[in-house]
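Cross-posted from the bioinformatics board.
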Amino acid sequence: MATTTVRPRRIGEGRRFLSAPALVYLIVLTQVPFALTIYYSFTNWNLLRPGSAGFLGLGSMFRNYQRILGNPDFWQILGNTLVLTGSVVVITFAVGMAFALLLNRPFPGRTLARTLLISPFLMMPVASAVVWKYLLLDPAFGLSAWVSRTLGIQSVYLVELAPLASIIGIVSWQWTPFVMLILLAGLQSLPEDVVEAARLDGAGPLGLFRYVTLPHLRRFIEIALLLEIIFVLNVFGQIFVITSGGPGIQTTNLPYQIFLEAFSRWNIGRASAYGIFAIVLANLAVVFFLQVVRRSRQEGAR
Amino acid sequence: MTRKRLGTLAWSVGTLVVAFAMFFPILWMALTSLKTENDAIAFPPKWFFTPTFENWRVAVFGGPVLEFMGNTVWITVASTLLALALGFPAAYAMAYYRTKRTDGSMLWMMSTRMLPPAGVIVPLFVIFRDLSLLDTHLGLILLFAGMNLPLVVWMVTGFMEDVPFALIEAARLDGASLWQEFTRVLLPLLVPGLAATALLALIFTWNEFFFAVNLTTREASPLSVYVSTFKAAQGDLFVAKMSAAATAAVVPVLVAGWLAQRQLVTGLTMGAVK
């Protein structure tokens, strides 16, 4: 990148506008719907009531938002979204780190182990939902029934007993390989001589991990965390297939609630207002995350 | 020496056992797809059985799976190609014609990828309805191309920055046009990078469900929408056929991912941690 300035500027100066089509495409595709979401959220438009597409009026333009904030269900849905995302992040980082450490040394069968371990991430989420729901967790003939009978305990239907925890487990199964892959890439980029030097200085395995490996992994941890949070906030397929957001609203997260408002109640105005909350939440997550990163950077620099 | 070897062996066995456990749900799905419906719901579960291809014959090759898979393939390939066609020139501009706005544009592009799909689904539905794009391949192709475009620009820009600029200058001295720079100089060098980019776009698009289920009903629905309709309510005698269809739905991406594990990391981190 440092060589950019010496590159001949006179050849095809207009070529810098080759990025225009892509930029225009993305502006149209994202900013138009975004602006419309804001506008719709100030209307009482319901597709089941023809002619209802009206602006709510300046005095009551925030009615959809007031209804949502005044609805106790909203706070549980928000809580579900945060608990789901937070739990998946914690679980996948703990397990993913363990897997990455397991793979970070040569042994016979390492390629096979890595291949098997990344597979859940490649699974279509709705397909893994179907497999977990009907083949593994089914209380009558699923594997969980067999396991509980072998252990001599009563067979239970986990999805019914602990719906949100089941979703968390299944989503974590899917996302652990993602964290593992990125952390493994980080571990493998750790120079051997640095590890060797720390060993010579008398660092034990734990000290090595805490003072050499973890600081080196910081950038990898940050990127994995950011991407995972963004994707897991949007989890939908597993909830759609396994619980339909229920029982009650126990497993309804924001995306699923928006889906219900929009496509079963056809309440465009309300669904759009929920959409704004989803957008704000994603932005808060990113901003909060960047703050944490910056602060830990500054502390590290001190 | 022997002790060290023993340690490695234990490590190997332990890791493989863990890996096998993680993989087990997928293996179980594939095994169930080869059982008779009766074997599939047998209790205790049958670990050894005579395999049958009946489910594959009936549910995959005789059922609607191929039709939905055709939709998925068409939507995935077309949207990936469109994203590459838009993203390649953009990456060229970003990599070789940097201005003070380049970094800002790149970051803005990435930020569009962070927009929650649920946050914009309502207006997208209305726009699709008004433009008669609901339940069409074209609608999903245009949408998914945009979904993958930031990734394509980001990754391909990174790969292009690794290409020595002297190669391009040499081509220019020989009087190469822009098109020739693309096809004769850059494309051959970028094949591995473009493959990694396309692979990741393919995985995201193939597995996408949220937009697909809300913007299609039947004609243009991809496989993910079909798989989501599986219900045990259709009778317990459905489990094996369901497994066959689900296995068929995930095998292409699974194999592609296995073959390109290294590129997967580059793609997943958007090259941010090269």
